[in-house]
Amino acid sequence: MSRKTVLKYKNYDVHSITSVSPSGKVNANIATWVMQSAMQGKYLTVALYKTDYTIQLVRESMILNVNLLAQDQAKKLIPKLGRKSGLTSNKFVNLPFEVDERGCPFLTEAIGYIQCKCVGSIDSGDHELFVCEVIKQVTLNPDKEVLTNNYLRENGLVRG
Ligand SMILES: Cc1cc2nc3c(=O)[nH]c(=O)nc-3n(C[C@H](O)[C@H](O)[C@H](O)COP(=O)(O)O)c2cc1C
């Protein structure tokens, strides 16, 4: 009997990290590796892939928003934000969003977003972990269902 490796049993919520550079360039990705890392929700830690456009903008500004995605966003946003780079496509065309008081986008159809200021980072192989102070949490669509990696697997939107 073939067995899955232990980490394959884990489920994750699905987010979009929205970012802005000091010169006003904006972007959005898909990220599952996001976790609360202090009591009372004061800090989050976000793993960003080193070769992506998102990490370039975050390194420059050290600010981001974590958007907790809803199930009804999956079909449209996984291919649009998670399989293309903002370096080569404008992801904000036909994407419902607004910007916060810092100019950082947030996705208005998400469950809500967490406004973050990055306070440091550490190497994690092909990713870099950004420790972020939570500035505020804003709930936008309280009745939607949270999108999870298991939902993506069950609906054929990711493999493994
Ligand atoms: C289901 C799923 C989960 C992902 N999780 C992460 C993640 O936790 N961190 C990350 O940096 N990229 C993650 N990615 C990959 C990025 O979303 C993807 O490389 C995206 O195209 C990057 O876009 P950008 O170059 O515009 O930043 C994930 C992609 C998918 C489809």
Automatic annotation (TrEMBL):
Keyword Oxidoreductase: yes
InterPro entries, sorted: Flavin_Rdtase-like_dom (IPR002563), NADH-dep_flavin_reductase (IPR050268), Split_barrel_FMN-bd (IPR012349)
Pfam family for this entry, one: Flavin_Reduct
Keyword annotations: Oxidoreductase
Record has Oxidoreductase as a keyword: yes
Domain (Flavin reductase like) ranges: 16-151
GO MF assignments: FMN binding; riboflavin reductase (NADPH) activity
Membership in a protein family: Belongs to the non-flavoprotein flavin reductase family.
Protein name (database record): Flavin reductase (DIM6/NTAB) family NADH-FMN oxidoreductase RutF
Source organism: Arcicella aurantiaca
